[in-house]
Design a protein that fits this description.
7 helices
């Protein structure tokens, strides 16, 4: 590549990137990069504030766009957390589900039933985590009720919590009987898959909206 083809200032740019790479190698690169970005953002915000001090309409429009972007990023964070929790829940539930299916094919001994109970406790921890998360969300719930395609769906905590209680009621029985328990476990597995798919779709949708808004805002400055 010739000097005229060097991107963003040629050799000077490569030297700067080399410095950054060296800093990253020592573990300081991310901190330095963030500090530079924050400094640039602060200066840009100050310049915008001065430039728009006499243009209230444009300032209001910019603030509205930034507030929308902030709300979308908050939605993105909550959908991501829900996706992670559901994934962890399915990971914990899979051994219990598989073991239950094996035990359902023969008479269950008390020792096997106790092992099944121990396996469920791991799942119970993840379900409780999901319940705690649902009670704390702020942006996902609003997003769901605005979307006609998913507004009729029950909240994930309601459905999964109900199935959790039914499974636990069966596990508390002393008869060591898997009858009906497999069906409940299958339904719980499907519910988790359903909401995991929902979280995945919403993540993609919100990412697209964020990217589109960024493109519109940045495109207007170029």
């Amino acid at each position: 590549m010739s000097e005229t083809e060097q991107p963003f200032g040629g050799n000077d740019y490569q030297a700067q990137m080399g410095d950054v790479a060296g800093a990253m190698h020592t573990g300081r690169g991310d901190i330095i990069h963030i500090e530079k970005v924050e400094l640039t953002a602060t200066r840009a915000a100050d310049a915008l504030r001065r430039a728009l001090s006499a243009d209230e309409e444009t300032r209001t429009q910019l603030l509205e766009a930034l507030q929308q972007l902030s709300a979308l990023q908050a939605q993105l964070g909550e959908w991501k957390e829900l996706h992670h929790i559901l994934h962890e829940m399915l990971t914990a539930f899979s051994p219990f589900h598989a073991n239950l299916r094996i035990l359902s094919r023969a008479k269950v001994e008390p020792a096997e039933w106790r092992a099944l109970l121990r396996g469920w406790r791991v799942c119970q921890t993840e379900v409780d985590r999901l319940m705690d998360f649902e009670s704390s969300v702020e942006y996902i719930r609003t997003s769901i009720h605005r979307q006609g395609s998913v507004a009729s769906r029950p909240d994930w905590g309601v459905r999964i919590g109900s199935l959790q209680r039914e499974v636990e009621d069966r596990l508390k029985e002393q008869r060591c009987n898997t009858e009906g328990l497999v069906d409940l476990a299958d339904e719980l597995d499907r519910a988790c898959d359903c909401y995991l798919s929902l979280a995945d779709r919403e993540l993609r949708r919100v990412v697209e909206k964020v990217q589109r808004l960024y493109a519109l805002m940045i495109g207007g400055l170029l």
